[in-house]
């Protein structure tokens, strides 16, 4: 038997999230560096965070709800001694913001402690969980990550690595993982390489992180990516690489380039900033519009807008200004204050927009409601024409691998043609980047990406009840997915 260390054992409906992970071995201030690593990865999760440290004998966890600087302070970090640590920032896509679902999880088995942090989604977690519960396992959270440690417990009689290999052999879907025991840190990536995970070094210590921007902040030198299907052990003997799984064709999540990763990160061997500019340049070749200015809705479309403006020779302007001091919650206004949630974050610059033909470059349109309000604000500010160009194809299918559009009913392009979306948004012109143009802009093998959210071609099929929750409301024939 093993148990999860937690003071609040509550249930919730949470399941899928897009998160960030960080791990370090061999540094006397492991907790402090993990704090800064998570700070750099804050864009990947804002609902909860946690750090677990080890000193060779004991494992110490601390987790909380909120942003990294809200959860941790100097006093707390001083209570997390040790030369190795892992950390996690979580973004729940189902609204389950409870401490029981915060990571890293800490479990105990056979007198040993193990902590785990996970970025991704396991597509067969429900099936495995049912089987384990029928065999007597008792789950303490609602997160798919927990099935990994329950599977490991079944094989723990051999050794840690053997148990990990056996557990990961059973799970399917996306995962970039960091584990911590008292004397080692382990990083693992699924065979398809859906989510990014990289390695670096600082002052003789080894670091693993979701993105290279976390390495930059702790002044670690980028070494390489954890390869798809690779398990890397960081301990007193250095770095040990294992490749226990059958090789498959990689399927990197292209949405990391389009939206999720920070532009100063290196992901899948490419600079995100550069790729986004190339996406904008590809838009210029496919949709060469006449206009008075190019603008983004900061900050998501900024770099593609720069690429578009550079090719077209049209001035780049910041037509709306972002309020950087908007918190995660605020007092709700009265109904008479229309579109408050949009205007409190982005405010148009009327002097720039009035009477102009405005070309907006955006990274994506998911549901369309926020975009519609933003376009309306440009019209109200006096824009004569408003065109919108999107630096990826239309999102028509749910993502099963950890992105925040898990239901087809949430996707405007799943039910409407481009012309209908254009009219709904109140645009003069709407253009999407083609799949071919998007792939070419990556400068990578075009077969190495997961394009399921655009094409419906899923590289890893989810279990039946997992996909049913995403499709049943639309009356979709599940047999084709």
- How are the strands of the biggest sheet laid out side by side? 1-6-7-8-9-13-14
Largest sheet: number of strands, sense, barrel closure: 7 strands, antiparallel
Kindly report how far apart the N and C termini lie: 37 Å
Q: What is the radius of gyration?
A: 23 Å
CATH topology of the largest domain: Glutamine Phosphoribosylpyrophosphate, subunit 1, domain 1
| Full CATH superfamily name of the largest domain | Aminohydrolase, N-terminal nucleophile (Ntn) domain
Strand content: 15-25%
* Proportion in helices: 25-40%
H/I helix tally: 17
Q: How many structurally independent domains?
A: 2
Report low-confidence residues grouped into runs of 5 or more: 1-17, 467-481
The global form is: globular
Structural class: alpha+beta
Number of strands: 24
Can you name the CATH architecture of the largest domain? Answer: 4-Layer Sandwich
The overall average pLDDT, rounded, is: 87
CATH hierarchy class name of the largest domain: Alpha Beta
Care to describe what's here?
With 481 residues, the protein is of the alpha+beta class. It folds into 2 domains: 2-248, Aminohydrolase, N-terminal nucleophile (Ntn) domain (Glutamine Phosphoribosylpyrophosphate, subunit 1, domain 1); 266-480, Rossmann fold. A 7-stranded antiparallel sheet has the order 1-6-7-8-9-13-14, covered by helices on one side. Strands 4-3-5-2-11-10-12 form a 7-stranded antiparallel sheet. It has a 4-stranded parallel sheet with strand order 18-21-22-23. Helix 9 (272-286) crosses helix 10 (302-312). The longest helix is centred in the middle third of the chain and has 15 residues, at 272-286. The two termini are 37 Å apart.
């Amino acid at each position: 038997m093993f148990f999860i260390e937690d003071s609040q054992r509550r249930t919730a409906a949470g399941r899928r999230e897009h998160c960030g992970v960080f791990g370090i071995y061999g540094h006397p201030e492991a907790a402090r560096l993990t704090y800064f690593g998570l700070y750099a990865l804050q864009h990947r999760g804002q609902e909860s965070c946690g750090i677990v440290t080890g000193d060779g004998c004991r494992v110490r966890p601390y987790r909380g709800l909120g942003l990294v600087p809200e959860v941790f302070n100097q006093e707390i970090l001083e209570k997390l001694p040790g030369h190795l640590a892992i950390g996690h920032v979580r973004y729940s896509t189902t609204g389950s913001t409870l401490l029981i679902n915060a990571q890293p999880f800490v479990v105990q088995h056979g007198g040993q402690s193990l902590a785990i942090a996970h970025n991704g989604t396991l597509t067969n977690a429900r099936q495995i969980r049912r089987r384990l519960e029928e065999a007597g396992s008792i789950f303490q959270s609602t997160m798919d990550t927990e099935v990994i440690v329950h599977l490991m417990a079944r094989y723990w009689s051999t050794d840690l690595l053997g148990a990990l290999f056996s557990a990961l052999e059973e799970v399917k879907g996306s995962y970039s993982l960091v584990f911590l025991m008292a004397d080692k840190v382990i990083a693992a990536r699924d065979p398809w390489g859906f989510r990014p995970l990289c390695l670096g070094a600082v002052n003789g210590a080894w670091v693993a992180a979701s993105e290279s921007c976390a390495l930059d902040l702790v002044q670690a030198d980028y070494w390489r990516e954890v390869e798809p299907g690779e398990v890397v052990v960081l301990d007193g003997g250095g770095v040990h690489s294992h490749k226990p799984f059958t090789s498959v064709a990689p399927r990197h999540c292209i949405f990391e380039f389009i939206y999720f990763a920070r532009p100063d990160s290196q992901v899948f061997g490419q600079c995100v900033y550069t790729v986004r500019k190339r996406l904008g340049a590809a838009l210029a070749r496919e949709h060469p519009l006449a206009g008075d200015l190019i603008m983004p809705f900061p900050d998501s479309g900024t770099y593609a807008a720069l690429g578009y403006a550079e090719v077209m020779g049209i001035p780049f302007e910041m037509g709306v200004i972002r309020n950087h001091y908007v918190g995660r919650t605020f007092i709700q206004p009265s109904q008479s204050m229309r579109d408050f949630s949009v205007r409190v974050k982005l405010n148009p610059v009327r002097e720039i927009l009035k009477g102009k033909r405005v070309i907006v470059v955006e990274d994506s349109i998911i549901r369309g409601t926020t975009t519609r309000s933003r376009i309306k604000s440009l019209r109200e500010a006096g824009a004569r024409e408003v065109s919108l160009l999107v630096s990826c194809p239309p999102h028509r299918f749910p993502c099963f691998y950890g992105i925040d559009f898990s239901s087809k009913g949430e996707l405007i392009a799943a039910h409407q043609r481009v012309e209908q979306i254009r009219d709904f948004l109140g645009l003069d012109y709407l253009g999407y980047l083609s799949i071919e143009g998007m792939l070419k802009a990556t400068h990578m093998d075009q077969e190495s990406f997961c394009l399921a959210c655009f094409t419906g071609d899923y590289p890893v099929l989810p279990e039946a009840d997992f996909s049913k929750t995403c499709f049943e409301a639309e009356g979709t024939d599940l047999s084709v997915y």
